[in-house]
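Section 3.1: Structural characterization of target chains.
Under the original work plan, the team committed to producing a structural model for every single-chain target entering the pipeline before any wet-lab resources were allocated. The record below documents one such target. The sequence was received from the expression subgroup and is listed exactly as submitted; it comprises 198 residues.
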Amino acid sequence: MKKDNLVINIGRQKGSGGHYVAEMLAEKLGIPCYDEAALIKETAKRSGEDETAVTKQDEKRPMHPFYFAGQSVPAEIFNRQSKLIRELAAQSDCVIVGHCSDYVVKDFDNIINVFITAPLGDRIARVARREDISISKAEKLIKDVDHERAGYYQFYTQQRWADCQNFHLCVDTSQLGLKDSAELIYHFVKNRKKDVEI
């Protein structure tokens, strides 16, 4: 398996704009971006399952820490997606959003791990506007999603989610906006690895 492709792993808080930053970064670099929708679609295609069923278990930890092999749907989804992520990373340079990708490809030679964050108030405003929901509902949604992501990450990696020690770069999108945050990461990538053609 080829392990020297450039793989940029994007972790993100709900409402930080991480998905959009990842897409803009990938477009600027001219490489594919594998986000939640892309990974769900390909996982469902390979397994023969309905995308809705995969979506319900996506980035979810097993509800009980003790389970038998083959009986935990979230664990099966994680294993399938991990295999898919490694295959995609071996095919070409790429940007991967979430799904413990920094851990999944940790043995690859040319990875850059980035975490996208923003103050809670900014995230609430963005989610409320984007989802057309109330401020209170947006806040609950953000806290629920981030709680689930933290549990998911810790369960499979045995590491703390959003711990800056796991990332090469942490970006607060409230300081630069989404477009300039993508630009910042682009220049980080370009200057960090001089021997990578981008």
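Confidence is low (pLDDT under 50) at residues 65-71.
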